[in-house]
Amino acid sequence: MKSNNLIYKATAIAPANIAFIKFWGKKDSQLNIPFNDSISMNLNRCQTKTYVKFNSELKDDVVIVNKKRIEGTEKNRVVAILDKVRKMSGLRMFAEVVSENDFPSNAGIASSASAFSALALAASVASGLGLSKKDLSILARLGSGSACRSIYDGFSYWKKGRDSKSSFAVQFAKPDFWDVADIVAVVDTGRKKTSSTEGHNQALTSPYFKTRLNELKIRTPLLKKALLDRNFQKFGELVEEEAVSLHVCAMTSKPPIFYWNRGTMEVIETVFGLRSEGILAYFTIDAGPNVHVICRNKNIKRVEKNLKKLKSVLFTITNKPGLGARLEKNDNN
Ligand code: PMV
Fold first, then answer.
1. How buried is residue 198: exposed, middle or buried, by Cβ count under 10 Å (0-12/13-18/19+)?
2. Strands laid side by side in the 291-296 sheet
3. How remote is the CA of residue 66 from the centroid of ligand 1, in Å?
4. Residue 39, Cβ density class (10 Å: 0-12 exposed, 13-18 middle, ≥19 buried)
């Protein structure tokens, strides 16, 4: 890692994740402390590769995302993580950060989870810090809450905690625990109109927010159990209930946020149609119009076929449970 011309570098790969119990609303918006625990699965076909190179010759941090140099708020979020790493390691150098997604950046899939978990791992290793998975999860969370769940392989559980030290994710189940898939039906490739950051901030203005938190006291342990029991029907029903709960909250916040569009509704109706034909498929939706359709591996072809037939579906991405953040073995950067 270390060389005489004072370059310290590392490259990491990390996945996006889909939350079955979702993070919505922040108790502390600086530290990304949530109001509730959440549960997710890593997506093996939606990953970010990031290299971080601390270089004594640089006069400022340089951040390049998907071949474009970024500035302003987006860059500041990356610099905040680099600053934290510099503080912890004592390294006093600027860094070059180059990050690329292996999935279409216009797919409307939140890349902040994969981006910040890859950044946390690459920056900490490059600086010589040997962080535990727990501390990596905390560092990733500071960049984007959901990123703390992308550190571990497979399925993760984020314990909300009370403060920065106690709010981190743990592994819930390994990738091969369950033969489930997440087929993302992309119905809109545009940038979402309301960011998840704004959504989190507005969540508390919904009269339904408190009810949602109360419901989660029941829904979260039930979903946890359905997952551990591999009870797909029960699991799917809870996943849908949870997605609707988040969106009811968004739609009733002030001002209201409607992430869904016509295509979203068309996919939801197709999922209902599949179920009426005996195919167990369930939907979940994050802060955007694209729909994640969850099914068993044996039904992937059938679900893909029905989704691809829809006029509003531009393309689909089929994911299996994926690995968490890891270092690239052949680091040639
Ligand atoms: O990590 P953030 O701030 O981008 O928030 C993620 C919000 C959702 O994707 C809607 C839910 C979740 O838990 O991933």
1. middle
2. 281-284, 291-296, 180-186, 315-319
3. 21
4. buried
d(CA 166, CA 224): 20
CA 25/CA 17 separation, integer angstroms: 18
Q: pTM value?
A: 0.95
- Binding-site residues, ligand 1, Cβ < 6 A: 19, 22-23, 38, 110, 112, 144-146, 196-197, 200, 286-287
CB 98 within 8 A of CB 57: no
DSSP string, 121-190: HHHHHHTT----HHHHHHHHHHH-GGGGGGSSSSEEEEE--SSTTT-EEEEEE-GGG--EEEEEEE---S
Nearest-CA residue for ligand 1 atom 4 is 196
Nearest to 292 by CA among 202, 217, 185: 185
Q: Tokens 């070059």 map to which residue?
A: 96
What is the C-alpha to C-alpha distance for residues 52 and 63, in angstroms, rounded to an integer? 9
Residue with tokens 């905690």: 161
Which ligand 1 atom is nearest residue 195's CA?
4
Tell me if 126 sits within 8 A of 136, measured CB to CB.
Answer: no
Which amino acid would we find at residue 128?
G
Mean of per-residue pLDDT scores for the chain? 95
Considering only CA atoms, which residue is closest to atom 6 of ligand 1?
Answer: 146
Span 45-100, pLDDT tens digits? 999 999 999 999 999 999 999 999 999 999 999 999 999 999 999 999 999 999 99
3 state DSSP class of 289 = coil
Fill in the amino acid letter for 246. L
- Helices assigned H by DSSP within the chain: 72-89, 112-126, 133-143, 196-203, 209-228, 232-251, 262-276, 300-308
Question: Rounded to whole angstroms, how far apart are CA atoms 98 and 255?
Answer: 36
Positions of the chain with pLDDT lower than 70, given as ranges: 1-4, 105-108, 110, 330-333
Alpha-carbon span 216 to 158, nearest angstrom? 14
